[in-house]
Amino acid sequence: YTHAHTHILEEARENLLKMKRKRCEMEETMKKRKMTEIGSAIEELSVLSIAKTTIVTTETESTNIINLPLKPLLSFCRLIIQVLDKIGPTMAVLRQDIDQNIQRLETMWESDPILYSNLVEILRKEAKEGSSRKPKSCSRAALWLTRAMDFTLALLQRLVKDMSQNMEQAVEESYNLTIKPWHGWISFAAFKVALKLVPNNNTFINVLSAKDESVENDISSLISLLIPLLSQLHSILESYEVHKLKST
């Protein structure tokens, strides 16, 4: 290992310890009170600190190292699946896509849990190998998880704006804004068929079982955490030139 690489591993170990401590605190909090999906998502994103850049200087080079913890990010994506399950069969295709992408990134993480605790190290590895654009790359997995989070953010923003908005309309508008531009005609056609399965009388409040006033504040808190995270993710994906990849 080079000096820079050794420093990366040391940073990764330190970040893992911090995340473990934070997760223990989070689990204690969850034991004390029953958490909704929104509440759990807020806890996960509080563990996931926004990417920080560390400059490592050696005799031959100066390297910018961005740290974006992988495991809390994947935990949050699992919570997205729980919300999609409540929307119903319409989201089955997106749900399956999220699950497969989580598994792909976890498999990479298992190959070196210290180094690949940082998502950026996975992107760097594939960029160096020239495999970022391959159909089953981890870079594509990270990209589509980011787009799933874009969709979730758009959906939540509509919820805050109108708590009684029709579910079919909200899902379609959020899809058109965030995922449709990157879907090929096959994926788009599948979504249009599935959209008809959303009951017309299904509102966001019914879906989230949110019958108290605090849920609106919780959703606003989640939105405020998601916006800077997604901004950072899009910036990282763009720096590795995988941000415009499309599906079939």
Task: Break the fold down into its secondary structure elements and pairings.
Layout: H1 3-32, H2 37-47, E1 52-57, E2 62-67, H3 70-87, H4 92-111, H5 119-129, H6 138-161, H7 167-178, H8 185-195, H9 204-208, H10 214-239
Antiparallel strand pairs: 1-2
Helix pairs in contact: 1-2, 2-3, 2-10, 3-4, 4-6, 6-7, 6-10
Provide a concise account of the structure shown.
The chain has 248 residues and is mainly α. It has 10 helices and 2 strands.
SS strand fraction: under 5%
Shape: globular
Main β sheet profile: 2 strands, antiparallel
CATH class: Mainly Alpha
Using the coordinates shown, work out and report the CATH topology. Glycolipid transfer protein, GLTP
Task: Give the total of domains.
Answer: 1
In N-to-C order, the SSE pattern is HHEEHHHHHHHH
The residue ranges in which pLDDT falls below 50 over 5 or more consecutive positions are 30-34, 55-62
Number of strands: 2
Q: Helix count?
A: 10
Q: Helical residue percent?
A: 55-70%
Keywords: Lipid transport, Transport
Domain Glycolipid transfer protein: 69-209
Protein name: Pleckstrin homology domain-containing family A member 8
Family: Belongs to the GLTP family.
Task: Describe, in plain words, how this protein is organized in 3D.
It is a single chain. It contains ten helices and two strands; from the N terminus they run ααββαααααααα. It is globular, with a radius of gyration of 19 Å. It is mainly alpha-helical and 248 residues long. It has helices at residues 3-32, 37-47, 70-87, 92-111, 119-129, 138-161, 167-178, 185-195, 204-208, 214-239; strands at 52-57, 62-67. Helices cover 68% and strands 5% of the residues. It has a two-stranded antiparallel ribbon. Belongs to the GLTP family. This is Pleckstrin homology domain-containing family A member 8.
